[in-house]
Amino acid sequence: MSLQTASVTGGTSSETMLKLKQFMSNRGAVLGLVIVMTLIVVALFAPMIAPYDPQMMGAGRRLQPPSFAYPFGTDEFGRDLYSRVIYGSRLTLLIAAIAVGIALAVGLTIGLIGGYAGGWTERVVMRLVDVVFSFTETLIALAAVAILGPSLKNAMIAVGIATMPFYARICYSTVLVEKNKPYFEATVAAGAGHARILFLHLLPNILPTMVVVATLGVSTAILAAAGLSFLGLGAQPPSPEWGWMLSAGRDYFSRAPWMMIVPGVAIAITVLGFNLLGDGVREILDPRQTNRR
Amino acid sequence: MFRYLTHRIGTALLTVWITTIAVAMLIHIVPGDPVQIMYAQSQGTTPEQLEEIRTRLGLNEPIWVQYGMFVSRIVQGDFGQTIRGNQPVLDLLIGRLPNTLLLASVSLVIAALVGVVFGFFAAYKRGTAVDTGLMITALIGVSMPHFWLGLILLFVFAVNLAWLPVAGEDWRSLVLPAITLGVANAGIIARLTRSSMIDILNQDFVRTARAKGLHKGTILYRHVLMAGLIPVVTMLGLQFTYMLGGAIVVENVFAWNGIGRLAIQAIFQRDYPLIQGFILIFACLVVTVSLIMDLLYAVLDPRVRLS
């Protein structure tokens, strides 16, 4: 498709249109977008969608199988699982936003400093990033939770720290590319100060790429945080966090398998949505990938 | 080659050194008084006793003296005693290590086999329903939380069907955790294999081979598969470190007695010496694995070997 469309349109604003078209022609990416948008809507309107208070014990009888009144059944306290999963979407999105936000903010700062400063600062900073990167995310996250103590807030911080090197590395290489562009040399030649170059020139040029890159990291963050909650190191009861709900459900598996299946499916669909969306975004960022079909 | 070697080994040593600093400082970053937290459970500890513990652990010394003491202890193989049960930390960790390595290795083999077969067939049948089906399966595999897959397998095959034990130490108890961890990571390998194979299939030498009239099977297996596997094999080292990380969670699902299970217990019990030992051992393990993989790769790939 690309050649014809490109010759008809062309120019920078229609380049965006072209990318948009490319994205919309990727069925997987569109499905991902739909899943993510649905999730956001569900999270925003949770009180209107959920039939019960997610914490209300005895909303139904204990361990009820899925039925018309309780679409996903009830848990060991008679809480409505459907309502809990709906409210859990808020936590999942919050975790994703905060963990990715921390990783992005710290990674961006480190990458920006490392790439801009050059010399010894660059070497030391980027070597440190490599060190953190070389440990697995799980180890870093566990170490962070071990220090901070188990809680949902700390799990988000832990996941943010653990995934930071990914963002730092991409930001660093983006800065290196920007540094070679004419506008950068012009700014330096015009005698702009460090702060001006960093915040008024480099940052606005890097930010769009980094925000797009962040969509690739969301699914990792969600899975990691759910894993911590599952281990009991993240969200604490009675939180309707999906990872924790799943963990609570395992004691009742034989009598109430839905308690464990429902939150697991919720996590899987959410992560699938972000993965599909991320794949679509990656395809646009790296045109080499598109020719592989 | 020599420069690459020294550089790579230097990086590994630097990583371990930074880890020792981080681990030694861990006890100071912990909010609150670690000694009080650790010994809060044992009722009736007097302030004098706490002060004595602090002196014994060297917590009253200046920080750099503490770090020196820490490193000299570690070098002598003394990782301290656990708070619970007063066992030597190093012995405990070394005792559990083989279980974790076994789980990660078997999982890696499963992930590589499943991933390569899926990826290869998807590439061979690219653009068809088979390709789409295989890649959707791989994507679902990547998106599933593996502790969830583990629990489902556990309840179906161990609890309900009773084909395999729920927990234990023999090979039969290894089957489910290894499948869980393997399948969870097979998706990534499948996707990488597919794109690598498609790259190769589009290359000139494959067309030449076809034009020469070589048998289709010969082309596929000798030329495409072998060439396409190079990036996959490179990726396996990184995958192994992921497996070690994933093992921490999976061990807890299946009560598999590896260091991951020990670590989670240690975090819950705030057993700081054990946590410190775990981080240090695990970090060394990851560093060693990636060093070995990189060196192996350097030996195999002439572009690195000759540079």
UniProtKB/TrEMBL annotation, chain A:
Superkingdom to which the source organism belongs: Bacteria
PROSITE patterns reported in the protein's UniProt record: ABC_TM1
Pfam families reported in the protein's UniProt record: BPD_transp_1, OppC_N
Subcellular location: Cell membrane
Domain ABC transmembrane type-1: 89-278
Homology family: Belongs to the binding-protein-dependent transport system permease family.
Cellular component GO terms held in the UniProt record: plasma membrane
Protein's organism: Roseibium aggregatum
InterPro entries the record matches: ABC_transport_permease, BP-dependent_transpt_permease, MetI-like, MetI-like_sf, OppC_N
SUPFAM superfamilies: MetI-like (SSF161098)
Protein name listed in UniProt: ABC transporter permease
Membrane topology of the entry: Multi-pass membrane protein
Transmembrane segments: 29-50, 91-116, 128-149, 155-172, 256-277
Keywords: Cell membrane, Membrane, Transmembrane, Transmembrane helix, Transport
Automatic annotation (TrEMBL), chain B:
Localization in the cell: Cell membrane
InterPro entries membership: BPD_transp_1_N (IPR045621), MetI-like (IPR000515), MetI-like_sf (IPR035906)
CDD domains documented for this protein: TM_PBP2 (cd06261)
Organism superkingdom: Bacteria
Cellular component terms (Gene Ontology): plasma membrane
Spans traversing the lipid bilayer: 12-30, 101-124, 136-162, 174-193, 220-242, 278-300
Keyword vocabulary terms for this entry: Cell membrane, Membrane, Transmembrane, Transmembrane helix, Transport
Domain ABC transmembrane type-1: 97-297
Membrane topology (UniProt): Multi-pass membrane protein
Major subcellular site: membrane
GO biological process: transmembrane transport
Family classification: Belongs to the binding-protein-dependent transport system permease family.
Protein name: ABC transporter permease
Lineage: Bacteria, Pseudomonadati, Pseudomonadota, Alphaproteobacteria, Hyphomicrobiales
